[in-house]
Amino acid sequence: MGHGARWPPPVVAAAVVLAGLTASGVAHAETVSRTVFGDGFDGARGAGVDPAKWSGGSWDTWQDGDGNLVLDSTLRTVTTFSQSSGHVSARIRAGDAGPAWKLLGVLTADGGTVPGRFEALGAGTTSVRDFHTYAVDWTRTSFVWSVDGQQVLRLTPATVGQPFRLALNPGGGGRYSDALLVDSVAVTVRLTVAPAPAWKAFTTYQVGSRVSYRGSTYRVLQVHTALPGWQPGLVPALFQKI
């Protein structure tokens, strides 16, 4: 990547809110942050976008070989997002100052404008020629845009909880603005997952499975059949604490 941390981040960035065992020995449920969409644009110079992730764009939308996407026409996610809440983050360098809600936009599932009430929260433009972090935090009843951590706009949709798509829009910088340079896009959501089962010897574990042991939750890193003494925390090659 040319300007940020290397993509991809872990597919699941677990932030355990409730974990381990209750006094009665029953495991709590866990709330985790999960990346459900991401693109670091690490393709070869001249490569197009991944059609499994994006629609739109054309010959003037291409990857520069340094971890960035050069965007001269609007791009939309193939995926629609219907989770009750989540966070979108994109590192963008705009060729001209433009409002955050246009550079990183939200659309209805059929690609239309999301109707609703807009409320300005702060300045929505940025200095040109620098990368900035544009973000959208959504719930069932609102979309809130921020630039470099500073909230700039709230949209209260007319219809709550409707699925939506994301859009990258170079027109956000004005009709004659230069192309956008996009370093990365990521979407994370918070999910409540079922309790992890307790670790047991002589159990066959698959990669990615979750187990609990002594109040902590672990992810299985390698396929194996557990033997006595192979408990999570004692064999780091087999388990990763989350």
The averaged pLDDT comes out at: 83
Q: How many DSSP helices?
A: 1
Overall 3D form? globular
> How many runs of DSSP E, i.e. beta strands?
19
What percentage of residues falls in helices of 4 or more residues? under 10%
Largest sheet: 10 strands, antiparallel
Quickly give the structural class: mainly beta
What gyration radius follows from the Cα positions, in whole Å? 21 Å
Q: List the secondary-structure elements in sequence, H or E.
A: EEEEEEEHEEEEEEEEEEEE
Approximate strand percentage: 35-45%
Low-confidence stretches: 4-27, 173-177
The separation of the N and C termini measures: 26 Å
Please describe what this structure looks like.
2% of the residues lie in helices and 40% in strands. The chain has 242 residues and is mostly beta strands. Strands 1, 2, 4, 5, 7, 9, 10, 11, 12 and 14 form a ten-stranded antiparallel β-sheet that branches. It is globular. The protein starts with 11 loop residues before the first strand and ends with a strand.
